[in-house]
Design a protein that fits this description.
Two copies of one chain form a homodimer. By secondary structure, the first copy, chain A, is α+β, with helices and mostly antiparallel strands. Chain A is built from 14 helices and 27 strands. The longest helix of chain A is centred in the last third of the chain and has 26 residues. The mean pLDDT of chain A is 95.
Chain lengths: 507, 507
């Protein structure tokens, strides 16, 4: 018997093998690939273009909230990193270290020479180098608040890497601010968390839970770390961004001081916050299906792709002209304050093959135009949020209203679907540790793969309890900002507890 | 006798000490500063914002010409670099080399551990890593042309650094393309040179000479290097960008092959081209005067700054309301297809001090509004291309026509002034090497500083002659694309020659 042809564009399906499905979706959409350099990735044009749309939106919001972009060095001298003890401890195990500044040929092989007096670390994050600049820039309360953002590459020497989710080098933005009061710095931390929520939920259509990290999970050197956590389709959590209230820790380490209004010298109160190319991994894992990528229209590099169907070569010009007219019409429309991004696929390839190509790339709307359509003054339209074979016929004169409307529907549908999925897999009924372990353990039922999710339960707040999660590969993802204000027992130790926490497996 | 107060906002003046004047203009405009890391710079918000406007314009042109952005790893394994012999030779002496991937505390000091099996070079340029990807991506002539661009940071371990002009780390874009024929690759090289000319001349208002580099000055590994050269106000040349025709050199080194239409396997024909944050150094040196930076309106982060003059505190609200009305009016105007970027300077500071602050930052138009202006329905307007004390009175209702007109005039004036300066200092009358040396040597006349410039003269084409320039710190900047087609004698060896070349000192 011949092997059964796959029924989906992506093999394996999510149910069959989620991690491998992820790799295949990334590959089929041509988003990125592993670089020949250990742990690094090449972000290919389709993936990079998504990053550019994320950047554009986020950069606008960062500027709207009063921040200015700047650029700081890639290299951090060891002595700078050493200044904040817990900070360096957090990053020392995964640093790329530059020790030499030239190469010489010896016995036909290049070897590093010109040893540096002080080794340089390739920035894993820039608190140390930016803190050093801030200490020069800030003298008086009139220099505050200082609100800076940087778009950059950073390096963390991860041993197990996965495209977008965890790579040795990744791209990000990192905000760094200094304030004259603790209150103002705390407000800034939450303001930027809200900017992240807005962009991730409203533009990337991924629902989030906002909360604080536990002492054990917070950023090395921070007083408090706030996080945005999303649920992937394997029901694991992905941390999609963090905002840190640094208190005066870094100000003391890097001597960031100011003269206050009374003439006294104080240490500044600081924050830092960042999101990375990991968001693209989140997009893949939250929205995609067994036919490949599904992109929220607001960040799709192309929102509408038009495929001309030429069956009779003599009619080729007629079809192409009609196609170009439709393109012009669509490009003149607006969606989300921008001109709609449309494209004609003119490649020398079968129409069906083209259709699947764009399905796998996640384009929200495909339009087919053939002689039959032209004769009836219509086009054939397919939506990425419906089944691939689901076609609608739309009159050409109605495209101007239909296209923006469908784009908005797809954007909302993706968000609603992800939200419904999360709701379905967020459990509030787990009452003790045994139940929790059972819940997170694959069983032998018909669907062994359906287990786990987010558990919202009470936690007593002790690190002892938290550590018991480790051997089960579970963790507290966050203490949600929205608390149920319930009294009860810790789901781990059964002692009195009133703090809501989200428990889950995670990336 | 008390020292004379300086008559200019910048000390020293260009005439007194050009290199120091440059540093002081950069400092007074708050563009950038030396980082505490050897050879690196911190690009401050005003400088980075200029870079963002350059990026926006150039990125649009790069995309308009069919290129797509992507991102490749920061690190290049030594073995990749070794593949193109002249390429590695060109960069080996100035590479940052990563040799370890973690830090350990030993006797209270951090030391690098986890030695890498193969050291990694921090990219000085990305031909080696991108060539490796291209060899995977390209199989058939249908995969060509492949047109990729990257915005990134690169590192070259320069020993003598100067803000923007030469730093160990800098920001740039690097285009990398592959084509099926030599002709197409050569056309691409020239097309991107023209894109650079357009952006640098029309947006940055800096006149250029386009030409090819000599064999000795070309990019390591290229067949031919094209350059855009500008004249600074000390009459030295600045190379502002290059476009390389790589032939099949890198295709052979990195095995970039394709099956042509006849089914035969061929090596691809490649190009690469880049411009860097050095352009900002060029802007400073071409346009600025002894009062500081002068920014062409098209890339000025703020084009119009409004300064309210409040002499009577009781009238404060009246003045502020009038100021806000003027701001709203200006922001609703367009210049160069964008809304005009305007700003009210409300800082608690004397009006005159504010005025000089914006003069030094290079803002094209300043507007002052006081009670007297309000009573007469006018504002006081100052242009950065006129003397600081030169004020005009403009009726408020005329601002809508006057502001865009003046911005365009300033943009054209800067270009015209720079072009006139270059014309004045481009000499075609130097006939032999003695005259050339004299021309480039400071003399004891009244103005010892006025010497040198660009010499356009004939060159026989020999490397021997070219090398004679070295001891005089001169070089051939380029063989201009526009040749005079003159027969005559080489300005160095007096032998027969017909090739026009530009001789100059340079950065």
């Amino acid at each position: 018997m011949a092997p059964k042809a796959p029924k989906t564009a992506i093999t394996p399906t999510r149910e069959e093998d989620y991690p491998e499905w992820y790799q295949q979706v990334v590959k089929a959409a041509d988003l990125a690939e592993n670089a020949p350099v250990r742990g690094c990735m090449v972000i290919k044009p389709w993936g990079y273009s998504i990053w550019e749309f994320i950047q554009k939106k986020l950069d606008q919001r960062i500027k709207d909230t009063g921040h200015e972009n700047a650029y700081f060095p890639l290299f951090i001298p060891l002595s700078f990193l050493e200044k904040e003890a817990s900070h360096v401890e957090g990053f020392a195990k995964e640093c790329a270290v530059v020790t030499h500044h030239r190469l010489e040929s010896k016995d036909g092989k290049l070897i590093p020479t010109g040893e540096l007096e002080e080794p340089l670390v390739v920035r894993p994050t820039s608190e140390a180098i930016i803190g050093t600049s801030f200490s020069k820039w800030i003298q008086s309360h009139r220099d505050l608040p200082l609100l800076i953002n940087q778009w950059a590459n950073v390096v963390r020497w991860e041993m197990r890497t996965r495209l977008f989710l965890r790579t040795a080098e990744f791209l990000w933005q990192e905000g760094h601010t200094a304030h004259s009061t603790a209150k103002e710095a705390e407000e800034e931390t939450l303001k930027m968390l809200e900017v992240y929520r807005e962009v991730v939920e409203e533009t990337l259509a991924m629902p989030l839970i906002l909360g604080t990290k536990t002492e054990r999970e917070k950023f090395p050197g921070a007083v408090a770390t706030y996080t945005i956590e999303g649920m992937m389709q394997d029901r694991k959590a992905l941390q999609m961004g963090t905002s840190h209230y640094l208190g005066q820790n870094f100000a003391k380490a890097f001597n960031v001081r100011f003269t206050n209004i009374d003439g006294d010298v104080e240490y500044a109160h600081m924050t830092s916050w960042g999101v990375t190319t990991r968001l693209i991994g989140g997009l893949v894992m939250v929205h995609s299906d067994d036919d490949g990528l599904r992109l929220p229209p607001k960040i799709a590099p192309k929102q509408v792709v038009i495929i001309p169907f030429i069956t009779d070569p003599e009619k080729s010009e007629v079809v192409m002209n009609a196609t170009k007219d439709v393109l012009a019409k669509i490009c003149s429309l607006k969606y989300n304050d921008d001109s709609i991004r449309s494209h004609i696929d003119q490649r020398d390839m079968r129409g069906g093959e083209k259709g699947w190509y764009w399905v796998k790339k996640g384009v929200p709307i495909r339009i087919e135009i053939g002689m039959r359509d032209i004769e009836s003054g219509t086009v054939t339209l397919m939506r990425r949020d419906k089944a691939p074979k689901d076609k609608m016929t739309v009159k050409i004169e109605e495209l101007s209203t239909v296209i923006p409307k469908i784009l908005e529907e797809i954007q909302s549908n993706y968000f609603a679907q992800a939200k419904a999925f999360r709701k379905q897999h967020l459990h509030e009924d787990i009452e003790n540790f045994d139940q929790m372990i059972t819940f997170f353990t694959p069983n032998n039922s018909d669907k062994p793969e359906v287990h786990g999710g987010f558990v919202l339960a009470l936690w007593c707040g002790s690190t002892e309890c938290e550590k018991k999660l480790d051997e089960h590969k579970l963790s507290i993802r966050c203490i949600p900002l929205k608390q149920r204000k319930k009294e009860g027992c810790c789901v781990i130790c059964d002692q009195k507890a009133s703090l809501d926490a989200i428990f889950a497996k995670s990336y």
